[in-house]
Amino acid sequence: MTAFRLLWMLILTVFVGELTIMFGLQFVHVDNRLIEAMVDASSLVVIVFPFLYLFVFRTMSNNIHELELAKHQLWDANETLEHRIKERTEEVSEQAAELRRANERFESAVENVPQGICLFDANQRVIVANARYGEIYKLTPEEIKPGTTLQEILESRKRQGTNFAIATDVYRAVNIKKVHEILDLADGRTVSISRSVLSDGGWLTSHEDITQRRQNERKVAYLATHDPLTGLPNRACFVSELERVTAESGAIGNTAVFLLDLDRFKAVNDTLGHAAGDQLLKEVASRLSSEIREHDLVARLGGDEFAIIQNLDAAVHEPVISLALRIIDVIGRPFELDGHIASVGTSIGIALCPEQGRDGTELIKKADLALYAVKEGGRNNFRIYDAEMTEVVEHQKLLESELTRAIEREEFELYYQPVLDLKTRRVTGAEALIRWNHPERGMLSPDQFIPLAEETGLIVTLGEWVLQQGCRDAAAWPENLRVAINLSAHQFNCGNLFDLVLCALVESGLSPWRLELEITEFVLLDNRPEYLQTLRQLKNIGVSIVLDDFATGHSATRQLMLEAVDRIKIDKSFVHGMTSQRESSAIVASTIALARGLGISVTAEGVETHEQLHQLSLAGADLAQGYLIGRPMPLGDFLSEGRQSHAEIVA
């Protein structure tokens, strides 16, 4: 210890000396006692320091290290937290931006939908309402702003006259709970409302003004059940109503079904035009409507066909007959159509329910049979269905079936009636007239099957056969003889008549100038451009056009018709009256004079006496045809002996 102390004193003495030199201090004499004290003190420090280091400084050092470590951990945690806060802040900002965009899209969608949108909370207060909602109910933005109560909105709408046409308390108590409803507003408009109930007790409503749509729907429904020209119920409505009343007939009364059409309507339509025809139909509809009771129904089935459902209190015929007679009378009165007076009639067929059945379709069929019977009996009358009418129709159906088979089996043949030149007294040709060689009923004349062929459309096929066969037959005649073939208006409707005629001429080898085609006035009265075009084409290749039954039609259009033809045929009714009726003679003379002025030749048909033939010659007719000259005969008879004998008869 003494050695250590001495060594330590030496070190301190040197240390103090060094300090004196380093700091430029004057050498100071140091007391040994001071050195010893310093040695003692420093020795104490040297001795105590290890203990302090071990038990204090080392512990403090460890604590400082731990604090440093904790500090770094805190810094790391702080950086992590700051990073996370930054990320979260960015996420929240993005979400807020997306929410704003979503709100903008929602507001844009709500404002741009065609429906009015209004969202209420559970307390019946507005959360949001778009402008269209305000427009529908004529409300200002202030009146539909958020927080407005349903009651306030209803009161505002009442002031504007856009409240519902039901009591407010009823609407709030009952209608507000409905998912969908259509309501009328006090101002006459109609709105469609859809509701969606929300989980929090609120609800979303969608409102659409469907006034125009409902009007269009009603218009479509009206047009679906009513005739646009006359405003009467149409066929569909008539059938539907008939089904209803026949189902009830017998329990609450009886029913009469009337089917009627107009007589001579086509003549009015042809002479005065379609506009006048439409006006006539509207007038007829008005007159029919004035004759029925409120609980009866009158309908237009189409064309000039009408129908009536008459409801009866009992199974008696008197009211039915009375109505039929009134209809015939009122329709028979003259019609004034744009300055023209027109007259038509009506034919009526009637079926009774339940007397003659309860099925609506069957009643219509039976009324139609009765109508057919009226037409067959002379028109402008009425008939109530009876069982015999069915037999007649069954016969017609059988005849129609046989007619179809007859075409397939070639049961037809052509007869020829000679035509005489009144100047040369020689036969110049013949008119081809079809006959049906029926396997059971023998030879049938045209009036026994041609009307049926016209009705069924078989006349087109039949007419084509007549054209082809007539051309083939005439091709074998002497070159100076012509053949006349009748055409139906149905053949013009097909659109290929010119081609058919051309083919018949080419296939048979008949010269076009030897072919005459006879048409009726109705073909020209239709005044269809395609008809006139066909006639011009036929005339251009040399075929002659003959107007049949002239002078029975309409004088107002005669000159126009004559310009389209090469020859006219005076109807036999005027020829027969020449010898006894001054009027008939005058008509024949004026017709011949008119034709002469236009350079058209004239044929008189139905000549049966020498006196008629003589007067026709004096009047200037060119040709004559009738029983006096010769009856229709088979081809062989006409070629072998007919021509010479006919010439001798009238010589």
TrEMBL record:
Residue stretches making up the EAL domain: 396-646
SUPFAM superfamilies referenced in this protein's UniProt entry, alphabetically: EAL domain-like, Nucleotide cyclase, PYP-like sensor domain (PAS domain)
Keyword Coiled coil belongs to the record: yes
GGDEF domain location: 253-387
Record Pfam families: EAL (PF00563), GGDEF (PF00990), PAS_7 (PF12860)
Alphabetic keyword roster: Coiled coil, Membrane, Transmembrane, Transmembrane helix
Positions in coiled-coil regions: 78-112
Record keyword Coiled coil present: yes
Domain of life: Bacteria
Spans through the membrane: 6-25, 37-56
Name of the protein in its database record: EAL domain-containing protein
The species this protein was found in: Candidatus Afipia apatlaquensis
Taxonomic lineage: Bacteria, Pseudomonadati, Pseudomonadota, Alphaproteobacteria, Hyphomicrobiales
